[in-house]
């Protein structure tokens, strides 16, 4: 099976397994784990923040950020297709007691003026804005990149209104590689950031959140409250170190694969690419085949390709470390076959 459902399916590399085996460990709740400390220092450095903290997942990292930044009854401004709004089980309401204020972006990027217009709280009828959340790359918009320049405009609005900005940077590394710029070019314009180690970077488990020392001290406590204080977690930090030091630059290969696949899709009359590909996500619109995305995904599966039915007529294909050029060529062959034989002209 060629698994294009997500970059979360990547399995850890042999080098990661080796480093897990060799990792020096201690009780990280007592902050005795040297490998975890090393990962957190490295991540803070790469993200240009005072401190960083390992968390069990991207969702946990985002939710800890919301919990630290906001208080009960506040509102967070975010993009209407964002992961925090759509795919975190309503956690912002369930845990932090805040309500989302979604606004529509353009290819996943929100406009600074729209954000400024959405800031509320001066009137007694209104919830008070507590946080602005960005997502880069934007998953639902097809792995699209928001430039540091756009982020800067938003950051300036936030500063004017004394609001923190959190970046859901689950795939920030993809954005950095796509623009050939360091991650700090992006993170200089946010208060806090979350990045995933277990997506395209191939680590088995975990995310990082980063921000000021004061933020991380509060985040550490929320992590403990949520049951995310881990003990000999150096075994998870060791592959995380490999992820950050050896697996970032190669994301370019995934981007090339996605772009090539999009070109093949583009050449087929019944299929369309919903968003121009910028990183490792291809959103394929199957509406002109007369099939739903679920039906199309079933056909793909019968032909050895796994994909995600993302919206009623959109199939998501994600390239990653465990997908080779040959796999991508085979996927294109399968698409051509489906379109010409099974679906008709
Ligand atoms: C994957 C992802 C997350 C976090 O997912 P987890 O499965 O909880 O690690 C957060 N935001 C975005 C944009 C993502 O793609």
Automatic annotation (TrEMBL):
Which cofactors does this gene product need? pyridoxal 5'-phosphate
Cite the CDD domains for this sequence.
Answer: TA_like
Catalytic class of the enzyme: lyase
Molecular function (Gene Ontology), one example: lyase activity
The UniProt keyword set, sorted, is: Lyase, Pyridoxal phosphate
Reading the lineage from the top rank, the first entry is Bacteria
One Pfam family from the record: Beta_elim_lyase
Aromatic amino acid beta-eliminating lyase/threonine aldolase domain span: 3-288
Q: Which InterPro entries match?
A: ArAA_b-elim_lyase/Thr_aldolase, Low_specificity_L-TA-like, PyrdxlP-dep_Trfase, PyrdxlP-dep_Trfase_major, PyrdxlP-dep_Trfase_small
The EC number of this protein is 4.1.2.48
Q: Which PANTHER family match?
A: L-THREONINE ALDOLASE (PTHR48097:SF9), L-THREONINE ALDOLASE-RELATED (PTHR48097)
Q: Which family does it belong to?
A: Belongs to the threonine aldolase family.
State the NCBIfam families in the record.
Answer: GntG_guanitoxin (NF041359), PRK10534.1 (NF007825)
What is the name of this protein?
Low-specificity L-threonine aldolase
Record organism: Alkalicoccobacillus plakortidis
Q: Which gene encodes it?
A: ltaE
